[in-house]
Amino acid sequence: MYRLLILLFQILSLILFTYCREEILMPGNDAGNVNDPIQDNKTNYYSLIIFAENLTTDISAITNFNLNTTKTLLTITDFDGGSILFTIRDKYGITLYNFSAESEVKNEFRKMTNGIPGKVELKFKNFSGRLKFSLSYFNDDL
Fold this sequence. Notes:
Blueprint: H1 2-19, E1 38-42, E2 45-62, E3 70-77, E4 83-89, E5 95-101, E6 105-112, E7 119-137
Antiparallel strand pairs: 1-2, 2-7, 3-6, 3-7, 4-5, 4-7
């Protein structure tokens, strides 16, 4: 009985310690590992954060918006080259917004009222830098 309890304790400890956290981020490193995006996708909200080095890839996400008044917020720091093309489409694939970034950007805000976002696409081409991008509901009353 004693051996069974010890074995059970060891198994539970192993499960607990291996499933607590996938990776630990250092303080101030909110962008995670290099070229490994962190995405948050909720109702009426989408965000992407990445620390990139010579990144060439496409990232797309289906969004869950039900309101047509939205805003984007973009910050690029530590820019060291490359470009990013942002495309926001509705659920039918019609482009609502298209813009690109090829330099540092500080809290660039854009308001959109021409449709309900259904998909976000980001095309990175040899991009190096830190990116924070969000798409969210915009309330004119605030």
